[in-house]
Amino acid sequence: MTPDEGPAIRFAGVTRRFRPRRGTEARGVLDLTFEVAAGEIVCLVGAPGAGKSTILRLAAGLEHPDAGTVQVAGELATSPAAHARIGFVPAAPVFPRALEVREALAHFAALHPNGATAGRNISITLETWGLGEQAERRVERLGAPERRRLGMAQAALGGRRILLLDETLQGVDPVTRRDLGDRLQRFAGDGAAVLLTASDPVGLERVTDRFLILHAGRVVHSAATPALLGQRVLEVTLDAPPREPPPGFRLTRSGMEADLGTRSAEAALALCRAHRLAVRGSRVRLKSLDEVTFDALTR
Questions:
Q1: Where do you find CATH 3.40.50.300 in the chain?
Q2: What secondary structure letter does DSSP report for 100?
Q3: What pLDDT is stored for residue 292 in this prediction?
Q4: With a cut of 70, which residues of the chain have pLDDT below it?
Q5: With contact defined as beta carbons under 8 Å apart, do 218 and 17 qualify?
């Protein structure tokens, strides 16, 4: 699929509700509309229960929306044509433990609609996802990082060009996360689309083209990564703490800080002087992804 053929994944007014168990809140997604283009990596961020896994299951055709439509490569996500294009890695994938890695991939290739082609590409798939040296190792002897690689490898079998990854880059060491992120970027660079989820997005900013921040089944913030990480904060160090910070400022351990938005740092400092605050020093920094996510989820 090329970018000119339309979005790889399209949600249009999608709602999916689940009947809550006693003592729990209803969960699902509400009126979601977004797209993922070919060649793009999009990350869904939110706390447990925000709707991240439900969105992936809808995209994989494993759930049916109560309202709206989910399309994959121009087909309904529940159609056989869409299933042949999608590779889905759940948060806790299960593999045949007694098989070697190569045998496990052969097992999954045989289940693919285009099994013959998928089987011929196993060696390439092993190298693509960094499993070449693990090919003859039993699955039960793999560590957590190698299991993540195996999940991504089986999802991409048969030339699938749309990957759905549920928390796949979470809970791994920084070296593995960086390596898998690099491999995902090369995969997307060849025109594939990736939709992944993360409860904690820290470390994914170098991988992801765009973030969708979710709360209670709704997208509360959406932005391309450069715009998301380009938000400026003015930090001010004071000789003495103020009785009350000026409008737009909040107290910190060493003084105050304020989101600049479209304001200049000079204008914000002028406000401090107008309130007769003794400014000892100041600096402008960029908000971290963790801060941006927190702000979006708590405002």
A1: 1-85+161-223
A2: B
A3: 87
A4: 1-5, 20-26, 114-118
A5: no
Task: Tokens for 278, please give them.
Answer: 């003794």
Tell me, what's the pLDDT at 3?
A: 43
Whether the CA torsion 98, 99, 100, 105 is positive or negative: it is: negative
Instruction: Please give the pLDDT value at position 18.
Output: 83
- The pLDDT of residue 1 is 46
Could you count the other beta carbons within 10 Å of the beta carbon of residue 66? 13
Q: How many Å apart are CA 259 and CA 246, to the nearest integer?
A: 12
Which residue matches tokens 């593995």?
176
Tens digit of each residue's pLDDT (9 = 90 or more) over 10-21: 999 999 988 766
Q: Does domain 1-85+161-223 have CATH number 3.40.50.300?
A: yes
Residue 28's H or E segment, with its range, is strand 28-36
**Tokens 């693919």 belong to residue:** 112
Tally of helices (H runs) and strands (E runs) in the chain: 10, 14
Query: Six-digit token pair at 295?
Result: 């702000």
